[in-house]
Design goal:
Elements lengths: L13 H17 L5 H13 L8 H38 L5 H22 L8 H25 L7 H18 L2 H22 L12 H18 L3 H24 L2 H4 L9 H24 L8 H19 L7 H22 L2 H23 L5 H34 L1
């Protein structure tokens, strides 16, 4: 009887068999086919039924294989960038000679070519060159954004073109989930942030990414972090990290800017100028984040409202809403955003340790240090000689870097022992 193609051959060594099983389980978990609990149970079963311990040289060989794979990835992506540069130069040098129909046909034909060939080269297609396939699909996404932009220019649709960013981001996010690419997911999230800022700016009578009130990005960042929580609950941790990183960057950067400059007063924007749509975009993300927390509470039985991390999240959500309301009040508001950034980064470090999340831990540590040294510059730049300022600042930076690195290594070792 012929052996099933899905059954591993009997001559496969136990260590290779175990590695294949672990990689398959991780892939199924990332695709949402396995829950986190079932994934842990199956991993424990694989470890219990594993064969003899592999020789000492095997882990080193695996590490070298991964390093070589990274080199191949860099080479392929570099080739894709050079190819894209050549095509852009070709179209730019001959753009005037093309008619309108030829311009549109060439743009969409090239985009479709990247998509089709890239998909065929991924694991879902007929040829198994996933790195090259994802690079071509990424180029197709870039070309799609260029297509929308050039179509707007060809048909003179440049007035308030935030809709083009929305179309780009929706298409990029859909493709990211289709091919399971974190790189394209980051591109889609950048598109979402750009659309949100442009839409709020146009509704407020400004232009492009409006920073007159950066606190409207705080709500969007919290919403993205909540979406990251949904992905983590679904066992899709590889996709949860990009949402968490982009969301934290939005929250921390907006709070940092507002803790230094009172941009609302400098832009002389008053609340009665804001239409209803702006109010919806300011506070709608908070409602979406609250809905995500309700879903996690009702569906994720591993957590309760009395758990300390959940209490911290609820406190931070209420605090950010309160600070957004305070931002409308007259007078100086920098102090409130200094307080907000300090509390948010401290809570982010705690949540990174509690959830064993490197994204929360590293991002929060970086912005906590940036916040401290920003305050050091504000209060001591004019109060001491410049040489003494740089001596103290440099020494503190090195000492703080050593302390943070030791703390990070200790926490990473704790994460590794917990995972083992």
């Amino acid at each position: 009887m012929a052996e099933s193609p899905h059954v591993l051959p009997r001559d496969v060594s136990p260590e290779i068999r175990e590695r294949i099983l672990r990689e398959s389980l991780d892939a199924w978990k990332d695709q949402g086919l396995l829950s986190a609990e079932l994934h842990e149970v199956l991993l424990a079963r694989v470890a219990a039924t594993a064969g003899p311990v592999p020789p000492a040289g095997t882990p080193r060989a695996i590490v070298h294989e991964r390093k070589l794979s990274r080199g191949v990835t860099i080479l392929i992506n570099l080739g894709a960038v050079v190819l894209a540069a050549g095509l852009i130069i070709f179209f730019a040098s001959n753009w005037i000679e093309f008619g309108r129909a030829a311009k549109i046909a060439s743009l969409f034909a090239l985009t479709l070519f990247f998509y089709l060939v890239g998909f065929e080269l991924t694991g879902e297609g007929r040829w198994n060159f996933p790195k090259l396939g994802l690079a071509l699909i990424f180029l197709g996404c870039i070309m799609f954004g260029v297509d929308i932009l050039l179509l707007a220019l060809i048909y003179d649709l440049t007035a308030e073109h935030a809709w083009s960013l929305l179309m780009d981001s929706v298409a990029w996010l859909a493709i990211a989930y289709l091919v399971r690419s974190r790189l394209i997911l980051y591109l889609g999230l950048i598109g979402v942030v750009s659309w949100f800022g442009a839409e709020v700016g146009y509704l407020w009578g400004a232009y492009w990414i409006y920073l007159g009130r950066p606190f409207h990005f705080i709500g969007l960042g919290i919403c993205l972090v909540a979406v990251a929580g949904i992905h983590a609950w679904r066992g899709q941790r590889s996709f949860a990290a990009p949402y968490a990183l982009v969301g934290l960057l939005l929250v921390y950067l907006s709070s940092l800017i507002l803790s230094i400059f009172d941009l609302q007063r400098e832009f002389r924007a008053v609340e009665w100028q804001a239409p209803v749509a702006v109010w919806l975009m300011l506070y709608g993300p908070y409602l979406l984040a609250l809905a995500a927390l309700v879903v996690l509470q009702l569906r994720w039985r591993r957590t309760t409202l009395t758990d300390p991390p959940v209490l911290v999240i609820l406190f931070l959500l209420g605090l950010t809403v309160l600070i957004s309301v305070i931002a409308w009040e007259p007078g100086h508001r920098e102090f409130w955003f200094i307080l907000l950034l300090t509390i948010l980064t401290s809570a982010g470090i705690y949540l990174g340790i509690a959830w064993e999340s490197p994204v929360f831990l590293n991002t929060s540590m970086v912005f906590f240090a940036v916040n401290v040294y920003t305050r050091f510059y504000e209060y001591f730049w004019d109060a001491m000689p410049k040489s003494l300022f740089f001596i103290i600042g440099g020494t503190a930076l090195m000492a703080g870097g050593i302390w943070v690195e030791r703390l990070r290594r200790r926490i990473v070792r704790q994460f590794a022992r917990g995972a083992a």
